[in-house]
Prior knowledge:
Elements lengths: L10 E3 L6 H4 E3 L9 E5 L1 H5 L8 H8 L13 E3 L3 E3 L2 E3 L9 E6 L8 E7 L14 E2 H16 L6 E12 L8 E10 L5 H9 L3 H15 L8 H23 L1 E2 L21 E2 L23 H15 L6 H8 L2 H17 L1 E2 L3 H16 L5 H10 L10 H10 L3 E2 L19 H14 L3 H17 L13
Antiparallel strand pairs: 1-7, 2-4, 3-10, 5-6, 7-8, 8-11, 9-11, 10-11, 12-13, 14-15
Helix pairs in contact: 4-15, 5-8, 6-7, 7-8, 7-9, 7-10, 8-9, 11-13
Amino acid sequence: MDEALKTDIFHPERAIDSIADFIADPVQAAAFPQTILRFRNDRAARTVGLDSLDDAQWIAHFGRFNPLPDAQPAPLALRYHGHQFRAYNPDLGDGRGFLFAQMRETESAGGRLLDLGTKGSGLTPWSRTADGRLTLKGGVREILATEMLESLGVTTSRTFSIIETGEDLVRGDEPSPTRSAVMVRLSHGHIRIGSFQRLAYHDQTEEIARLIDYCLRHLLALEPGEVPALTLLNAVVERTADLAASYMVAGFVHGVLNSDNIAITGESFDYGPWRFTPRWEPGFTAAYFDQTGLYAFARQAEAIHWDVAQLAQSLVSHAEADALVEVLRRYPAIYEARLIERFLWRLGLTAPDGDTARTFVIAAVEALRGSDVLIDRFFFDWRRGDHDEARYPGAVWEKARSAFGALSQRPGALDHPYWQSDTPCSMHIDEVEAIWAPIAERDDWSALHSKVEAIRAMGQAHGSVPGQPRASRGE
């Protein structure tokens, strides 16, 4: 056993064993030519008692995937189906990743069951024609996405580890050959809507009941109620509506909101062609292959709602259809309420009532849509009170200013030094490329480390989102 783990902090779990017989396949990690540690998230590791590992131990577990003490003995590739751009695909599953281990986070962090899952760890039964690998640039992009989202209040997986693996990969969408890596993410579960879709596709009704029980018991900490399927769907509706709202307030476009990419916990994960839209541009897309704009910035709430409807369809063997539909109908109102709450949170504001808050948010979004103002600049300026007519001219901004006057600033909203700086922290595509360039050209990682530090400072300045688990923001 690792000496570093002889504490009361690391608490391995094997809850997945109760459903592994129908949801997963045992696999082996690839044997990589090299294992060069490039990023370790000690802030996240502290929440599960793994920060005391030295670098050699870290590489042994997260580069060569030696089992953690008392954790599951072999990785598990999860099985699932899903709608991809609204077309059903029954040939999915973990094709370049697996569930490596489960553990409890510390009580002070929330005490949730967490998964360590991988990306780029080699071939599985679900790899099809792919190579099971991850580019190093893809790993760097995942670091930047998860750190930025975490600091902007989005409930997200956390990039736990990036290890360069010494292989040259060929990819059609970037200069090749390119460097390779294996990534580990820390997530609150890897059960997706597509996990239920697969069971429904195969008429595995008993297994659906067992998966419902697993999700309620281990991931959502909910009593099953009279109809467990309705309890589950209610929770998923609430959490995914909040997820969609958080994307909008962050200015984030996930890019691939297929049903296999929507977690039952409502936690955002699996970042591919993501982008942050500089401006409030409803039609902004992240993926070059999203030619119809299905997952455009302003269509994300609709897309996630559609995915949740596919979960409801998968549960018809366990609940009345009319009851499932009634639960689905809750989504739009929850989404709107959480969008308003999160919008005010990012501005450090409180409202005397819901109508006052709604009036302001509608006015602000209307103004943003019709202007060239950057989203990050707007939230930064208006939180600090820099919103006079000289900076924000025109009748549409005057309407927002008028509504703003009825709101109050939260105590301590401007206490952090971040609010005394000149420029807000952002993460647009040109910045991503600028951070990657010195890594690719001369193995210089300083820009990445500096950016992560700046992003985390911004997160501290914003504070916690009400009702969000502290560990989801690394606090």
